[in-house]
Amino acid sequence: MSAPALPSPFRTCVFTGRRIHKDAEALVKANAVVAVVALLIGAIAALLLVLTRWQAVHLLPADWYYRILGVHGMNMLIFFIIYFEMAVLWFASTALLNARPAAPRLGWVSFGLMSVGALIVEWMQWSGKADVLFTSYPPLKAHPLFYLGIILFAVGALIMVGQFFATLVIAKREKTYEGSLPLVVYGAVTAAIIAVITLLHGAMIYIPTFLWSIGVIESVDPQIYRMIWWGLGHSSQQINVAAMVAVWYMLAALTVGGVVLNEKVSRSAFVLYVLFISMASAHHLLVDPGFGPAWKIVNTSYFMYMAVLASMIHGFTVPAGMELGMRLRGYTQGLFGWLRRAPWGDPGFSGMVFSVVVFGFVGGITGVTIGTEQINIIAHNTMRIPGHFHATVVSGTAMAFMAATYYLIPLVFRRKVAFWAAARWQPYLFALGMLLLSMGMTFAGSFGVPRRHWDISFSQAPFSVQFDPAVDLVLAVMGIGGIMAVTGALIFIAIAVKSVFFGEPLGEVVRGVAVAGIPQGLTHPPVHAANVDEINERLHRESSRWTGPTPGTMALVAVFLVAFVVYYFTNWKLLSVLWKVG
Amino acid sequence: MLTKVHTGLDAVPGVWWKPAHRAEKMWVAIAFAWCMVLFAMMPLWHWRGGQNPSGIRRKVEPRAFYARTVEFTKQYQVGEDRGFPIVQPPAGSDVYLTALTYQWYPILQLVQGEKYRLHISALDVNHGFSLYPLNVNFQIIPGYDYALEVTPTASGDFRIICNEFCGIGHHTMVGRVIVLDQRGERVSDNSNARLTNAPGGTTGAQP
């Protein structure tokens, strides 16, 4: 006898046929929506900041510049990114595994904790009680509630990450999938492990700092603070890297049928992230007085650059997987036929490609270079630093998350993407704007322009400083790029909000029939032929011994390596002409 | 032996630990070799290069460091500019510079080609030492004495910009370093702190 029929907690996805749990889906939705709200606040702050740093405009007064800078950092680097990552974790552990979520009610408790924490932080920052910027280095002191808000947010996030692991255990035990985890979920697992490391660092530093702010302990050593805080500050960006790479693999599969070249290689690269990437926080302490050269070299190289190796591996396997996926579907013409024939009008595809390219070529190369112990002398706290991390976190991670959203709207929210014409070119506008912004900042920093600085005309300083006239030009490039990027971000927000809250329901979806508002990866799924394994054998057999079945990607990574080598040694050359310091 | 074709969204049944294609292995090997180059450059520069952030580092009581700076200033003061003492210490000596909201104290007058041990620390909060226009940057932390062996290889009139947020007046915090040429004379008309040519030096650290 069957039990009385309860309403099923699952629905079946119209595109993929997967089982989607409704509670999990609600948590994905809530986290994604709050992420977009944080993005909106951060984007408006970004516009005000870029119009202040563009010295020719110089919009905000000094106190509001520093205040908004703190708001921008918190909303973008913490709230937007982490809420979105929580959505990714829920999605990966349930939808991709056909599984039910662990303790969905607890999920709402942790979501509530995070949100209360975030609201307290916003309140403190906007009311001027926490003018200590994002990093809040003591002895600069904020209102105790500021630190408490961050602690609440971190605790909530930590519980949610715990639920992600619990969901994986349930899925394994209930055998909702066969064999090993899909690579995308595997990547999400590494992101979650790094998140635990990160959030524990946050607790380790913010709890004493909170106690100091209410007078329970006398002082917090500013150097120790910097060391542990960056275990939060930089490691949180490594959650982004792992989550972003997972999203790359996901979008590669959805948009062009990108395949996994070799599970061993890709998974080993993710393991390298877990083992070594946390050491990267030492980047921030390269020209600090508290540490010696041996400590700096071992840590900054993330122990011999093993995490850089991991990124260089993914930088190959993701495009190579797309190339092979396209070739398997018959796009075999020449070196780059697969790229020419790719769906450039699909924002999920174009956004993902821009994310890979700008993250690698601009963010990656500049980051490794300025994160070198000695080269950091000509980069530390100049605008080269925000120039670098806007290329990684924004052009890389945020761009990838935007691209993913174009697929999540129909898949999770079951709506058509609104303003479809705008959505198709939004990635182009955003990526180009961010590229100009990053380049402008990087070059301004090379001239010595400091980051986090209200007035580089130094009108109230005792001694005059006159920057090279070229600085005006690169700051204008930064300003124009920033306006373009913010416009792109606002268009994205408008699309997301309209689609989610007022969007047109999907209706009936017929394979092979293009519909405005549904990415082509869903209407025309890039499925492989039944005899794909044979084709694969043949492509491998007929390929060159040196370039393999993906010659186009080999050419692209060769260009990347040359750019890397040239940029890296140019910086050593610039360093070598300075005063002798040791 | 290839794995069954699949995407990153598919669970992988069976054993996925399979040998990679030769081309993929080659890229991993090249990337690994490059990482070793990146790694080797840092110890190599300590050995052969002239610019390292090592220094002699010790903990110090911030007020004691400031008192030492004031004492040093009295000992070697040679002039004054806008209320700031100009201090010319003998070549090879210990030089003290304190960062405090919102000034760099005192003005240093050094001689090109001579070596100094420059002690920098902060009295109150974190500050950022940024020597303009050379673009030489160090983090200055209260309670830590950062003593760097410095040899100015170019003469000129330099600025120290604070590039770590230190409070609402952060952007007004500019200091001055004068480097006399090898004859011990000031280099005239160099108010923008642009560099003159010097052995081993060029005209600034511009990209």
Characterization of this structure:
The complex is a heterodimer of chains A (582) and B (207). With 582 residues, chain A is mostly helical. Chain A has helices spanning 22-53, 62-94, 104-126, 144-173, 183-213, 222-233, 235-256, 263-276, 293-300, 302-328, 337-340, 347-370, 384-411, 420-446, 470-502, 520-523, 532-542, 551-576, and strands spanning 10-12, 19-21, 580-581. Chain A has a two-stranded antiparallel ribbon. Chain A is globular, with a radius of gyration of 24 Å. In chain A, 60% of the residues are buried. The mean pLDDT of chain A is 93. With 207 residues, chain B is α+β, with helices and mostly antiparallel strands. Chain B has two domains: 1-52, no CATH class; 56-180, Sandwich (Immunoglobulin-like), CATH 2.60.40. Chain B contains two helices and twelve strands, in the order H-E-H-E-E-E-E-E-E-E-E-E-E-E. Chain B has helices at residues 22-48, 62-76; strands spanning 56-59, 77-81, 84-87, 94-100, 103-105, 107-111, 116-122, 127-132, 136-140, 144-151, 156-162, 174-180. Chain B has a seven-stranded mixed sheet. A five-stranded mixed sheet of chain B has the order 1-10-7-4-5, covered by helices on one side. Chain B starts with 21 loop residues before the first helix and ends in a 27-residue tail after the last strand. The chains are: A mainly alpha (582), B alpha+beta (207). Chains A and B meet through helix 2, helix 5, helix 6, helix 7 and helix 8 of A and helix 1, strand 8, strand 9, strand 10 and strand 11 of B. Strand 3 (580-581) of chain A pairs antiparallel with strand 10 of chain B, so a sheet runs across the interface.
